Amino acid sequence: MTTRFLARFSRISALSAVFAVLLSSGSVLLCASPAYSAAEPVRTVKALMLVGGHSHDYRDLPVRLADELMRRGHVIVEVTDDLARIDARTLAKFDVFIDNTCHRPALTDAFKQAVTEHVRSGKGLVVVHCSLWSYVDWPEWTAMIGGRVETHDKYGSFDVVVLDPTHATMLSLGNRFTITDEPYLVDQRDPAATVLIETAEPRHDTSGTLRPGPDPQVWVKRFGQGRIFVTTFGHDAASQQSDPFITLLHNGVRWAGGSLDDTVHNRLSRSEQQAGFALLFNGRDLTGFKGDLGFWTVEDGELVGRARDLTRCAFLMPSDTYGDFILRLSFKLVQGNSGVQFRSIEQPHDAARPLHGYHADIVPDAWGSLYDYGGARKVLAKELTPEAARHLVIANGWNDMTIQAARDRITVWVNGVVTARFQETDAGVPRSGLIGFQLHRGAKPTEIRLRDVRIRPLRPAELDPQTHPD
Question: What is the DSSP letter of 248?
Fold first, then answer.
């Protein structure tokens, strides 16, 4: 590289910072001295980014990328293209190692051991774009990062879906965005990795054949005590200079470096506590539930129901009854047909439907529709068309549902959108009853995952007129 020196003065979060950029024949060094408030509790993460290879700009883009990451604050990035520099002594100075390469060089044992032990000991690893193709002669690399890429679909703009918007690395991204990049086709996937972003639609392979399903584009996993964040994005300036990419990578570096904690589920926020919410699921076991317990387990803090070949619907029910309330939960329908019963009454004489009452559906094309389950009226309210429902819900990911029952008015929201609105005119319909989480009868398997299940009784002043849940 031609030696040159650049200095720039910029503002970071209304605070001054000076960036110095030094390019030498062996490496590029970026240093920043951000001025943070003395009261700032957030730890700054120190990251070393290794760049180099072909088919991409590894001269100027990494400099701008590091600059943008440091502009966001709480991150200091040093960039080098000197592969020989990566050893245990060097990595010990950094919280995170960012691999942003596209080549298959002969790797030394010192490099392999340094990177492996860096992560295993509790430090972070961030893998960017073509690094999923690099190091083909080091199979442990593929095993460690959780995937390998040999090809991609055509370059262009495409939509991706955020499967868990509450994950720390997904903050400020929403549940869907568009990016201009190469849609990577990911093989040799590690099932232990947690996929957080996938293509909105299946992509085509090199022969033009449509892949069987969406391809993962971003995931996280653990290796020993360390955190690994992987993104397939980052081909060129169109990708790297987009706000979603910078936000995503900034989150990923901070999470891998331990500056962003994992999101804690099944715990009430302070505002929820003050509002009077209570948890129905403690995140550990089935305490407080009754019903068909044999079909339900707790896995990784998630309430999981699985069944197939059911001759009747199976339900897991909190023991108490509820009348006027706001119920909030997050759901992930892995497969099958499920839903939430409320103001429901047990009906032992009904062999197929042992719980009668209102039912908010969790099933494709009818997300959040309201049914008279076990009654003669069937569909009570359905606000969305099947097409609108498909675009509303993260099909393979986590979604939020809110149910509000206020006297004779029922409202259901999914991901903040009203999916059912109903006013009961039959005075004989119960105004209180059980809540139940359903596994639908039938030969097809069903798997439903729930978390953050909480409820708040409505106060008299909230019952009329009905208001949006607080």
Answer: H
C-beta pairs of 411-418 under 8 Å, 24+ apart in sequence: 411/466, 412/360, 412/368, 412/369, 412/370, 412/381, 413/368, 413/469, 414/367, 414/368, 415/175, 417/384, 417/392, 418/383
Residues 6+ apart with CB under 8 A from 384: 367, 368, 369, 392, 417, 419
Report the DSSP beta bridge partners of residue 51.
100
User: Would you say residue 368 has pLDDT above 50?
Assistant: yes
What residues make up the domain containing 99?
Answer: 4-256
CA distance 170 to 177: 12
Among 256, 288, 311, residue at a domain's last position:
256
Looking at the fold, whether 236 and 362 belong to one and the same domain comes out as no
With residue 98 as reference, give the H or E element that holds it: strand 96-102
- Contact residues for 426 (Cβ-Cβ < 8 A; gap 6+): none
Q: C-alpha angle with apex 400: 362 to 423, nearest 5 degrees?
A: 65
Instruction: Report how far Cα 154 is from the mean position of its chain's Cα atoms.
Output: 25
On whether both 201 and 282 belong to a single domain, the answer is no
Beta partners for residue 289, in sequence order = 318
Domain assignment of residue 413, yes or no: yes
For the segment 261-274, the average pLDDT, to the nearest whole number, is 94
Nearest-angstrom CA–CA distance, 6 and 163: 40
Neighbours of 284 (CB within 10 A): 9
pLDDT tens digits, 405-452: 999 999 999 999 999 999 999 999 999 999 999 999 998 999 999 999
For residue 306, give every residue at least 6 positions away whose Cβ sits within 8 Å of its Cβ, in sequence order, or none. Answer: 295, 297, 439, 445, 446, 447
How far is the C-alpha of 253 from the C-alpha of 237, rounded, in Å? 19
Of 234, 256, 278, the domain-final residue: 256
- Judgement on whether residues 42 and 160 belong to the same structural domain of the protein: yes
Domain count, the chain: 2
Q: What is the pLDDT of residues 114-130, one digit of tens each?
A: 999 999 999 999 999 99
Contact 405, 325 (CB under 8 A): yes
68 inside domain: yes
Q: Alpha-carbon distance 437 to 373, whole Å?
A: 13
Instruction: Tell me the C-alpha distance between 449 and 82, whole Å.
Output: 46
**pTM for the predicted model, two decimal places:** 0.85
Q: Residue 318's closest CA among 291, 278, 354, 348?
A: 291
- pLDDT above 80 (res 243): yes
Q: Which of 438, 446, 418, 454 shows the shortest CA–CA distance to 306?
A: 446
